[in-house]
UniProtKB/TrEMBL annotation:
Pfam families per record: FGase
GO MF entry, a single one: hydrolase activity
InterPro entries noted in UniProt: N-FG_amidohydro
Protein name: Putative N-formylglutamate amidohydrolase
Naturally occurring in which organism (per UniProt): Chelatococcus asaccharovorans
Keywords tagged on the record: Hydrolase
Gene3D superfamilies: Zn-dependent exopeptidases
Length: 248
């Protein structure tokens, strides 16, 4: 399997930060076909974080930090899971088997890691090291989207932070975004980072630098104006983090 390097926007970004987009794409490497799934699955939140790639493109024009996107579907391999996590390469969706992922040999699993997982994190790590060398206190921000209804449960949150090591950036984002009337935000909701989240933890845990993930509910990213609105919100909040000294 050939290497699938990530997409990098604002590669030479001047501001003190880095944005990771783990689940940006629907791509499937050659040789894996459609993973044995019906085409309709490609339009589901299982295949990728819906709307997040377009949101990242909008953000790139508003805040001059590097943005790294994994364009390969999370169903090939999830770059936000530890490689020994059983969910790293899922074998079923809602009781629907993913036939291309069933009974993989160790060599086949390692091939996906070498083609997708490690190239993504190597690029992220290289850029993050550079940002840490250039700046006193850069932020690490992982951008995601999630579904409004999951396993029959309605989620009230329009957006939410995910953090583990330190809540400094989370608190800033919630305070800044929370000034907008009607916006419902979650602190470690709808997903908690307390038990660890691979990308944020692997690159920032123990550094003392501001870091967190952020989920935007994907029904708020369905149109161009929707995504532009959220790009403005997030760019404003992250720029304010720099202006107020949360990041520097």
């Amino acid at each position: 399997m050939r290497a699938n390097p990530p997409i990098v926007l604002n590669a030479g970004g001047r501001l003190p930060g880095l944005i990771a987009v783990d689940h940006a794409g629907r791509s499937i490497p050659p040789g894996l076909g459609d993973l044995g799934l019906a085409p309709a699955w490609q339009d589901s939140h299982y295949f990728c974080d819906l709307g997040v790639a377009e949101l990242a493109q909008e953000l790139a024009g508003l805040i001059d930090v590097p943005i790294v996107l994994c364009d390969v579907s999370r169903l090939v391999i999830d770059v936000n899971r530890w490689v020994d996590d059983p969910r790293s390469i899922p074998v079923a969706l809602e009781n629907t088997p993913i036939t291309a992922n069933a009974a993989l040999s160790c060599a086949e699993r390692e091939a996906r890691q070498e083609a997708v997982f490690w190239p993504y994190h190597q690029v992220l790590g290289t850029i993050w090291e550079r940002q840490m060398a250039r700046h006193a206190r850069p932020f690490f921000f992982a951008l995601h989207s999630c579904t409004r209804v999951f396993e029959g449960v309605h989620r009230p949150w329009d957006g939410g932070t995910i953090w583990h090591d330190d809540d400094t950036l989370s608190r800033h984002l919630l305070h800044h975004l929370g000034t907008e009337e009607g916006l419902v935000l979650g602190d470690n909701q709808p997903y908690s980072g307390r038990n660890g989240v691979y990308t944020v933890d692997w690159h920032s845990y123990g550094t003392g630098l501001p870091a967190c993930g952020f989920e935007v509910t994907n029904d708020l990213l369905e149109t161009g104006p929707d995504r532009a609105r959220w790009a403005c919100r997030l760019a404003g909040a992250l720029t304010a983090a720099i202006a107020t000294g949360v990041a520097a």
